[in-house]
Amino acid sequence: MNMSLTHNDISTIKELFKTQFEAQTEVLSGSIRDLNEQLVRGQGKQDTRMDRMDARMDRMESGIIEIKSELGDVKVAVLELVGTDRALHSLVRELKGQHIPLNERNIFSA
Prior knowledge:
mainly alpha
């Protein structure tokens, strides 16, 4: 059996490979285009989600700032109460020292 290939056979095989290669290249290019479109769409959805998360984080941050401000106000109020309580105790001691009758229970009861 003689299996030698002629120049014509080689050209035919070459054309078949070329045609199949071009067809597979086109299929692969289409698949890559489809994948790229899916990635772009997915990225758009991710961007939208990230924007929503950024907005939520901004709201949370402004809420935290507001809470910090309110805590500062509470701290000032507590310090003023402590100061007032000390001043009241000092006043009661001074008045008692001058023998002025006072009912401490009525003054310091809640």
